[in-house]
Design a protein that fits this description.
The chain has about 150 residues and is an all-beta fold. The chain folds into two domains: about 70 residues, no CATH class; about 50 residues, no CATH class. The strands form five sheets. Strands 2, 3, 4, 7 and 8 form a five-stranded antiparallel sheet that branches. The chain has a four-stranded antiparallel sheet with strand order 1-9-5-6, with no helix packed on it. The longest helix has 4 residues. It is rod-shaped and about 80 Å long. About 10% of the residues are buried.
Length: about 150
């Protein structure tokens, strides 16, 4: 399934422009005449009359709207706005959600366990760590390797 949503824009730097009547307390952020939607005010560096502004304090962002919190700013006083790319929140997987298939294409890791029967997939390599015991058959197909540590 293809990705649904805005295109990912990670790590690129862009010089943004503002549109709207001036002076104003809000402007629309634009890049190449298209509305630009940063994920957070912290992803912007903004200078007004030579002074770098504090994101979240001097300005906030909602969608493509740059808001100066009621302070009127002339667009001519905005020296530059640099978009510093987008955040990518990888997060932490929930317990029990990472399967063996997600760990690696060729290795399998297991905590101490007792196997009644163990059959590896063909052309796969495996690693078992810790005390292990087998009460039945262990099948390791041709082209596969099992290492017990």
């Amino acid at each position: 399934m293809p990705y649904v949503g805005r295109d990912l824009d990670i790590g690129s730097r862009k010089i943004l422009a503002v549109s709207g009547s001036t002076p104003a307390t809000t402007y629309t952020l634009q890049y190449d005449s298209v509305d630009y939607h940063p994920s957070a005010a912290q992803n912007l560096i903004l200078s007004i009359s030579g002074v770098i502004q504090a994101p979240g304090t001097a300005y906030t962002v909602s969608g493509a709207t740059l808001d100066f919190g009621g302070v009127s700013v002339a667009s001519g006083d905005i020296d530059f706005i640099v978009a510093m790319g987008e955040n990518v929140d990888v997060g932490t997987p929930s317990d029990g959600t990472v399967t063996v298939d997600k760990l690696s294409a060729t290795y399998y890791s297991e905590n101490p366990v007792t196997y009644s029967t163990l059959t590896m997939n063909a052309s796969k390599n495996g690693l078992i760590a810790g005390p292990v015991s087998f009460t039945g058959t262990v099948t390791i197909p041709s082209g596969s390797t099992l290492v017990i540590v």
